[in-house]
Amino acid sequence: MPITALTRGGTEYTPEFLTAIDAGKCIGCGRCYKVCARGVMTLKGITEDDDIVELDDEEFEDEIERKIMVIADADNCIGCGACARVCPSGCQTHETIERG
Question: Is the pTM of this model over 0.85?
Answer without folding.
Answer: yes
